[in-house]
Amino acid sequence: MKCPFCSSSDSKVIDSRPAENNSIRRRRECLECKARFTTYEVIDISKPLVIKKDGSKELFDKNKILSGLMKACEKRPVNAEAVVNEIEQEIYNALTREITSNTIGDMVMEKLKRLDDVAYVRFASVHREFKDIDSFMNELTRLKNTKGDV
Question: In what order do the strands lie in the sheet with 23-30?
Fold first, then answer.
């Protein structure tokens, strides 16, 4: 760390403490000019790449998941932001550099299946791209059968 006063690269940490936004505040003293200054360290987490259905890749964006969930959970007793935060945490904990959009959609469906049947079916209709009423009814039947097993 270069001293902002004399540009010396020799300094010592006098004090460290947690700061806002998961950062660490460090109070430093330059060993050359004895000036004191403060630095902040933040964790730099690189976002995983999402592989879309067409094979293209883009950086993970939790707002895209939230947008779809907000539509599926409209007027339903589901905290969409909490669901998105759980999924985001699972993705980062997996320590993978790439994840398919299909896998993310399946993760959302798994969470919704436990939380709210209506939101689950709404999300599934888009994620699974239902083409007709039969595919929709098949999903409802499958949901009903899995709920009966519990």
Answer: 11-19, 23-30, 36-42
Block residue for tokens 């998961």: 22
How many residues are present in the chain? 150
- Convert 85-137 into a string of H (helix), E (strand) and C (coil): HHHHHHHHHCCCCEEEHHHHHHHHHHHHHHHCHHHHHHHHHHHCCCCCHHHHH
Q: Could you state, in order of their start, the residue ranges of all structural domains in the chain?
A: 11-42, 49-149
Model pTM?
0.63
Residue 148 pLDDT? 60
Quick check: 134 pLDDT over 90?
Answer: no
Q: Which two three-digit tokens encode residue 65?
A: 């998941």
Contact 81, 68 (CB under 8 A): no
Q: For residue 110, report the phi and psi dihedrals to the nearest 5 degrees.
A: -60, -40
Tokens of 57: 């890749």
The CA distance from 40 to 34, in Å, is: 19
Tokens 């004895």 locate to: 34
